[in-house]
Amino acid sequence: MKEKIDHYFGITKSGSTFKREFTGGLTAFFAMSYVIFVNPIILGQAGMPKDAVFMSTILSSAIAMLVMGLWAKFPLGLAPCMSMNAFFAYSVVLQMGKSWQEALASVLVASILFLMLAFSGARSKIIKAIPSNVKQAGTVGLGIFIAFVSFKNSGIIVPDDGMFITFGGFSNPNVIIAFFGIITAAFFLVRKNQYAVFLGMIGAAVCGLFIRFGASMNWFNLSADVVATLPQLPKGSPVVIPTEPMNAMMNDTFMVAVKNLDKMLSLDSIVIILTFLFLDFFGTATTLSAAATQVSDIKQESFEDNKRIYSADALGTFFGSILGTSSLSTYIESVSGIIAGARTGLMSVIVAGLFLLSAFFYPVLSLVTTAVTTPAMVVIGIFMMQNITGIDWDGGFEEVIPAFLTIVMMPLTGSIALGLVLGFLSYELCMIFAGRMKEIPTVMHFITVISVLYLFTI
């Protein structure tokens, strides 16, 4: 059996060992496992049942990684993307007023389109058509947007009549919890620990438990409403058979996307679908490009030109929408498994197995609050912010203006889609103003038309 597994995955041929594959899988799991607890919190703000999202996150991630490992045979992990769940909850549902059921249907349609693109030559044409500066700026804007929302949800930022927003103050214990987690994550980031995100959340949770304990001992004078927002230990065993979240998923979110497909014909729904497609498509391309830079002995083309990797991503999103979660994407955190020595798809299979085992730790969700997730969101924002160095700030104002508008309009308007649309439109206009219209790809003209139509829906 061991020889068959070795032959199937090409473990010895790739210069790896079973031990390296397992170590890489364990490393990748701990580096990206925060999504299991963060995703239900974010989508829960869109009205989705957290228990159901918890289960759909685990199952869809496991399915996607099994496809990645057994079919694409590549050592990468997939799970619901942090930028796309933010777009799903804060832009599509909370800002645009769509129901989460309609949003899931949009994700389903986008996944089908993504799958078609993954197997066609159109994939590379579209990637090349979008200006590099706008792509990089979109990633930066998403990072700022995600951090901004997490600051707001934890109370670090609050509304202010004079300045629109202001610092929430340390009278709110959730602010203390969030900052403690951020400091913890920063400590491990600086020390180049690959589990910084995970450890930052643990630090925040421990801080929250201490404050809850202090309140129960009358050390802190906190109202019952405030105490209710703090992390708490599971009331029973932390390890249970996940019957409750499985039933919630089957009853509340399973196949909901399919049942709402008839609502996808409106113009605003089409724009939402295309935005999901754009975010997933270019998010994967960006992640694969970043992953390629981390591993010197694997050619960049092996990452970026592998149709099966893109297909695994699209299939993961397809199954995720059916089960009840937002778009999946390849996780840059999973590259830590490659750095730890993994070189084959066996690593992805191991991570999938660990994700499935994590379902039995469902009660631990009681420890995860919006304040506890803040360190994860901030670190993600930091990673995405680094793409700002990829913007050509010396390329002329026709390059700078679209990048600037894309970055600032996402967090300031609270709309990821609007930030991208304004980036596309300003690029087209500025290139025309600069007399460089012939340099604009035909595909970009089509995207511009869609962008104009989107403006009439808001």
Specify the biggest β-sheet. Answer: 2 strands, antiparallel
Query: What is the count of DSSP helices, taking H or I runs of 4+ residues?
Result: 22
Classification by helices and strands: mainly alpha
The overall average pLDDT, rounded, is 87
Tell me the number of structural domains.
1
Residues in β-strands, percent: under 5%
Form type: globular
In which order are the strands of the major sheet placed?
A: 1-4
- Please compute the radius of gyration using only Cα atoms: 22 Å
Uncertain parts: none
Amino-to-carboxy terminus distance: 58 Å
| Helix content range | 55-70%
Order of SSEs = HHHHEHHHHEEHHHHHHHHEHHHHHH
DSSP, total strands: 4
